[in-house]
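Class, discuss our next protein.
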Amino acid sequence: MITNEEQLEKNIEQTKSVLRQYLQEKGFRNTPERYTILEEIYRLDHHFNVDDLYLQMLQKKYHVSKATIYNTIEIFLDAGLIRKHQFDEKNSSSSSYEKSYFDKQHDHLVIYKKDSDKEIEEIIEFCDPRIQTIKESIEQVFGVKIDAHSLYLYGTKKD
């Protein structure tokens, strides 16, 4: 039986292979920094932003600039290795990301802190099969094939 750590290592190697192929197809340089950033992202179990990732890498003594992380994030987005989110309604320049290569489709419940000006307390991922039913219905009604969707629900906890 394969352990979680072994599966993680296997997944990381697979994403590195995807990145290697993408870089080759696009004619981009194959730099060690890109693979290090990818590995750090795939070891996370939560959403992240560039500032948090940069600080985490500094703490681990990686020598990578914030500009390199921003540029690499764009490559990962285009390669389908990560997904971008705009959870923060009041700050449109604040992006969050999550790994996406092995993730199944899911949606997000963004919970604000009570009595705050939309300060995020928690982000909960969920999957509700009824959403798939709605997608199928929309495909039928409009004669389209839905390739992906994004659903954010915003609220505060009840007392």
Remarks:
- The domain at 1-101 is CATH 1.10.10.10 (Arc Repressor Mutant, subunit A).
